[in-house]
Each structure stands twice: as C-alpha cells, then as structure tokens.
Amino acid sequence: MGRLLIGLLIGFLVAGGVTASDQALWRQQGPKMVLIIDDLGTNLRLGQAALALPGPITYAVLPLTPHSRRLSQEAERMGKEVILHAPMANLQQLKLGPGALTLAQSKQQLQATLQADLDAVPEAIGVNNHMGSLMTQRAEPMAWVMEVLRERGLFFIDSRTTAQTRAYASALHAGIPALERDVFLDNERSTAAIEAQFLRAVDLARRQGSVVVIGHPYPETVGFLAQALPALGEYGITLMSASAYLAEQRDTLQRQWARARAEAGVTPGQ
C-alpha cells in the first residue's frame, strides 16, 4: 500500500473510527475472535501448556524473564504468533520486572529500553502493554513507543488497563496497525467466571463482528480454553491471530477505498 493510501486510511480511522458499513462488511465474512495470552516467560510449565492450546492464538511474551527465549522460540516452531508484552508504568506502582518502561525515563532511555526488549524477543511481530495503567494515559511517552514500533514495522494492541488509555489512538496517529482489547477472560480465576467472560466475548463478536480477548496462562484459563476453543465453530466464530485479523481489516478498507475512488471517477495514479 502506498504512503498516501496508508495516510488516508489511518486518517479515516482516526477521524471516524470503523463505520457501520465497514462493520456490516466484516459481519458478512463472519464474526472473528482474536485471542491473546499474556505473561509468558516467568513459568515454563504454564507457558508450554498455553502454547499447546489449539488454533491461531497470539502469545505475549515478557522480555528478559527466565523462560521468555525458550517459550518464544517454541511458539515460533509451532507456528504460533508472538508479540512483546512490554512492561509499562502502572498507577498502583506494582513491580514491573526487567525491561520496564517508566515515566522517569527520557525519550532516549525509554526507546533504548524498548529496543532492548524487542531484541530479547526477536520473534515478536507486534507489541501489547503489560500493566501500563499510568503510562498509556500519557501522550508523549506513548508517541515515543510508537516511533520504535513504526521503525520496526510492528503492530500494537492496547490492553486497555485503564479507561483513560491513549495508546490505541497514539498508534493510529503514528500510522501503526492497532487493535484494542474488548474482554479480559480471567480477572477472576474461577472456571465459572472465565466461562461467563468467554460467553460475553462470543456475544460481542456476534454483535459487532469481532472481539479481542486477553487471558493468561493460568491453569483455570488454559483448562477452560482447551475445551471451549474447539467449539467456537459451533458459534459461527473464526479464531484469528492478531496479524491475520489486521491484514483482513486492511484488505477490506483497501477494497472500500478503491471502490470509493472508482465511484468518484478518480483514475489509478491520481
């Protein structure tokens, strides 16, 4: 896609979001679910159990953790999608672990830390935020983050750990393919609570055409998903990796843009 078309499409998204006609077209293709499993890297056994789940799941790997390299490499060998789970400053001042991005860092320090995090997970083709309820509210550090992602050709997923997040908008303004989380599966780790959230995600997918879901490699979550994911087809929902879904969105918007140009009498090259 040319730079002009990218800019126009991003401008369209930033200005008006996804229109009703866009959603209608995506619904014709059937509802989609993007499932992300966060926090891989600290526990090998739980991480490997999560990798064994069926289907095109996206795995968010914490940088510089004891098992991040092994799990990231195993995921790639299995054909699974890997993204960086970038630790970002939170309102509760919870410990972030290695590779943390904080408000105390200068632009140079923050970007150098993020570059090192990405180098530590070379399989990553995108990024989402780990915690980040404080940092994702701040426009300037998020713009610094997006500069690095744009240079590396990565996408971004806003985990929406705060309702005041500006991360998704920052990504779109930077011209970066982006998604935002709709449902957390396992804020409560009981099977009943996870099932309720999963059914909520199914309902959202049916109503709005797609849903982005985040879970964690908890035994309760992995056990439930092992049973639930094979049944997604019965709900008429297709499970997609984040990158595949973003590519589908891009292709749909390109077709709509081409059709709009044709209807307006704009010839190719103009």
TrEMBL record:
CDD domains, per the entry: CE4_DAC2
Pfam families reported in the protein's UniProt record: Polysacc_deac_2
InterPro entries listed in its UniProt record: Divergent_DAC (IPR006837), Glyco_hydro/deAcase_b/a-brl (IPR011330)
Stated name of the protein: Divergent polysaccharide deacetylase family protein
Provenance organism: Marinobacterium zhoushanense
